[in-house]
Amino acid sequence: MRVFIGESAVDVPEGASLLDAVHAANRELPALCHDERLSPRGSCRTCLVRADGRVVAACTASATEGVRVNLDDPAARQAAKGAVELIVSELPARALDVPPERSELVRACTHFGITGSSFSGATHDRGVDHSHPYVKLDRDLCIACGRCVAMCAEVQGTFALDLTGRGFDAVVTAGDGGPWVSSPCVGCGGCVDSCPTGALSEPGLLDPRPTTATTATTCGYCGVGCTLDVHVRDGEIAAITPARGAPVNRGHACIKGRFAHAFHRADDRLTTPLVRRDGHLVETTWDDAIATIADRLSSTRQQHGPDAIAVISSARATNEENYLAQKFVRTAIGTNNIDNCSRLCHAPSAAGLTASFGLAGGTNPLDDLDRTDCILLAGANPTEAHPVVGARIKQRVLSGARLVVVDPRRTELAALADVHLQASPGSNVAVFNGLAHLLIDEDLLDHDFLDQRTTGFAELAALVQDYPPDVAAEIAAVRAADLISAARLFGRAHHPVIVYGLGITEHAHGTDGVRTLANLAILRGAVGTPGCCGILPLRGQNNVQGASDMGALPDVLPGYQPVTDPAVRNRFAALWGRAVPERPGLRIPQMFDAAIAGEVRAIHVIGEDIVQSDPNATHVRAALRSCDLVVCHDVFPSRTAEHADVVLPAASFLEKDGTFVNFDRRFQRVRPAVAPPGSATSDFDILHRIANAMGIDLGCRTPSAALAECASLTPVFAGVSHQRLDAEGPLHWPCRAPDRPGEAVLHLDGFATPDGRAALAARPYLPPGEQPDGEFPHLLITGRRLVHYNTGSMTRRTPNTELLPAETLELHPADAAHLRVVDGANVTVTSRWGRATLTARLTRDVAPGQVFAAFHFPDAAINDLTSPHTDAATGCPEYKVTAVRISPGP
Ligand SMILES: Nc1nc2c(c(=O)[nH]1)N[C@H]1C(S)=C(S)[C@@H](COP(=O)(O)OP(=O)(O)OC[C@H]3O[C@@H](n4cnc5c(=O)[nH]c(N)nc54)[C@H](O)[C@@H]3O)O[C@H]1N2
Ligand SMILES: Nc1nc2c(c(=O)[nH]1)N[C@H]1C(S)=C(S)[C@@H](COP(=O)(O)OP(=O)(O)OC[C@H]3O[C@@H](n4cnc5c(=O)[nH]c(N)nc54)[C@H](O)[C@@H]3O)O[C@H]1N2
Ligand SMILES: [Mo]
Asked: Where is the 4Fe-4S ferredoxin-type domain (predicted)?
């Protein structure tokens, strides 16, 4: 539709407002209650314009074909100016001191020629609330526009904020009006980001000096892949804000990506290489550290063969670094002993989705959530672990989508669900077979899809005969009636979507869990069909999808091309100039076993704290002690570093160049915003230096060249390059040519399985590896908390610790009474594998007989407790089920 803003004609889509048209014409118009992320409010009257003769608020008036908008109409302008003058008449003059780039109000005053004298009206003295480490409130600058309240409700879905008081006294308050930090605020920063006056601000922006540079990059915490703008002042990060219009996060973020950046200048950051001398790690030069590693890797290789070396690559690092790591291992060392933390996480997703559909990625983009009318959320806690996705799920549910949650704990979303199947840990396959039984029994099936595009229906139908609702309910300890309700909600939805996480994968039968969950999408024809919403694994680390995509895995080269395929190997060997070893290498748990058996003699770890994050830590420590050489690259002195012979200081994501692949298969750019401290450098640079010292040139000197090389060898990434990402923005894979778009939805033209059909899986329920018994009567579930991230190495070095200073053990009050434990008391948790001391926190969010803890704090060594049981198909640890005994006292 064509509209006219002054003399210029602009085209805007149907449904656009006049304000959108003004912005499309690149004209400024103050609009103090407006934010494009929110529904229009039209309350402040500062965007008045004349449109076809009438004075209207541009933010709420719809654009119509041919409408003529006059921004300079004297009457409209006078009325708008009056509205701003009325607002500022109640503000202190210091409202004008906020730098214009941070205050729409200051810009509005400039626009209308309003000066400090207009601010001399009544003044308040309502004070500040600086109780929260990140969200700082200056009440006297609040104009009660309501944008913060709307951000919290409409975008974040937390409803923590409100406007209280009347008229000019109205001001934002959090929670019940007490200190901000005690409110339900989750620190997403949406309110700060939208505030037009600086009433809500954040530490780095309270400093009046302007920031000097802004770099757009991708968040280095979880796999959602939010685009962030990093604002720098004097070479230091002043603030990080979500990029407006970013495809994944749409101008939203969470407390980690938005605020938890202080780690990058923490006092104990590694800035110099360390080498072990006489039992102690001491500082050394890069030349010495690199020569030590190169010499000892070379001699290990000579004496014991290349398979005596194992490398763990990093899902925190970029694609280009992972590409180089696997190239280094396969060419410079000559082994396939390379793996990444996908093994501990979503390896069962890769295996299960490949078996069901032929590709290892989630099938649909996040945006398809906007279309769904029923979400089956299984074993995932996105409001804590993927908060931007969690908020989007809440938005969908608030606008009417139904929600079924399968989780042994009452998570935030479980509490909001239509049906919460509080299934016992390890019972997923029984639940999903029970749901499949009901879908078949009640004929909630897509018969055409099943006939034309799937295999295995008869076998599945026969198997799930054994899982009528009462049987499945009994195994999972849920009510049969709830299973039936859940099956009907999912079965009758027009656009059902499945979203899942580690509660499905980190089990002794994790791959079976993924496959039986995928069955439900297949039975409904909800995957690979036009308009479907598909199945979305919430991949964990910022680049765990990418680390695996790049071939940092023992059995596949980039793009999941098998090392066992001679044609594939030859293609890589031809370009690399070295043979690619044909025998698949060791998986992470096998590396430790092999080290203890004396077969692996050197372990080289890039960006993973295996001593804190792998299960059965006693075994991991023993494995490291058995090695002749342990090397690690990290940002901080990790628990693993304590066992290393050489420790190299790595640059963090804020300091390097490359790409990540997020959970919905998007390649996105990572750009350096600040310089690494001291002599720290990128994992990319480190790998090149080690290879050079071993006399090998890995080629691809720059990250851009590395991705180009990878694309040239990998058909599904053939169209991806730094140049294209810089020019066009994120690209989904598969992206098969430079002139073709990425494929956001998979399998529309047929599944990628050998026969082109989706494979239903008839898998029986098998009990978990660990069971409670008389000696270990409780089940420990492990997982995550909002403000800390994995081993906590980064978030513990930020003010996030003010919000959560230590780990707790969540315990049901009935169990606590039985054990004579009160809230806040120390308890000792003992498993068959180790023990840990924690503080008890009583909550009904866990079921009786079950306890929960996260693994973010090294002094609450949760992985001293977890067992060596792993998923039979993939080796993924059974982190979610450990039998424990709880006793009062340390
Ligand atoms: N704040 C924060 N965010 C993170 C991380 C972090 O450490 N902190 N880590 C990142 C990483 S690496 C990952 S992989 C993701 C993980 O993200 P999620 O998969 O969401 O994380 P978890 O909390 O480990 O587990 C999810 C849920 O599984 C449930 N669960 C446990 N056992 C079972 C079961 O048998 N059946 C079912 N149905 N559910 C079960 C747990 O109660 C828990 O609520 O998060 C990423 N994002
Ligand atoms: N009990 C229990 N244990 C678990 C899980 C669970 O649910 N329960 N979940 C598992 C899962 S899903 C995962 S993914 C793992 C995660 O386990 P890890 O990967 O070990 O944990 P992280 O804290 O993410 O980061 C690892 C290290 O990388 C460093 N680092 C960060 N960025 C970079 C970089 O760019 N380069 C380098 N060289 N280093 C960097 C960090 O400082 C940190 O020490 O934990 C697993 N462990
Ligand atoms: Mo993970």
From this structure: 133-164, 177-205
Domain that holds residue 554: 311-330+337-343+549-660+671-718
The pTM for the full model equals 0.97
Burial string for 679-694 (b: 16+ CB within 10 Å, else e) reads: ebbbbbbbbbbbbebb
Establish whether residue 772 lines the binding site of ligand 1, counting it when its CB lies within 6 angstroms of any ligand atom: no
Ligand 2 near 655 CB (within 6 A): no
Q: What is the dihedral of CA 358, 362, 365, 368, to 10 degrees?
A: 100
Other C-beta atoms closer than 10 Å to the C-beta of 738 total 12
- Which domain-ending residue is among 537, 561, 585? 537
Q: Half-sphere exposure (CA, 13 Å, Cβ side) for 79?
A: 15
| 499 is a domain residue | yes
Minimum CA distance residue for ligand 2 atom 12: 345
Which pLDDT band holds residue 303 (cuts at 50, 70, 90)?
very high
| 427, two tokens | 């019972």
Closest CA to 515 of 368, 712, 696, 355: 355
Ligand 2 center to residue 85 CA distance, Å? 53
Residue 844 lies in a domain: yes
**From ligand 3's centre to the CA of 55, what distance in Å?**
55
Let me know how long the chain is.
890
Confidence at residue 116, expressed as pLDDT on a 0 to 100 scale:
76
d(CA 328, CA 322): 10
Mean pLDDT across the chain: 96
Model confidence pLDDT, tens digit, residues 776-808: 999 999 999 999 999 999 999 999 999 999 999
How would you classify the pairing of strands 658-661 and 646-649? unpaired
613 and 507 inside one domain? no
pLDDT for the residue 122: 58
Structure tokens at 87: 């607002």
Would you place residue 151 in the very low, low, confident or very high pLDDT band (cuts 50, 70, 90)?
A: very high
The answer to whether residue 123 scores a pLDDT higher than 80 is no
Q: Which helix (H) or strand (E) holds 669?
A: strand 666-670
pLDDT of residue 210: 84
Pair of tokens at residue 230 = 């990093």
| Contacts of residue 797, Cβ cutoff 8 Å, sequence gap at least 6 | 262, 263, 266, 268, 636
**Ligand 1 near 423 CB (within 6 A):** yes
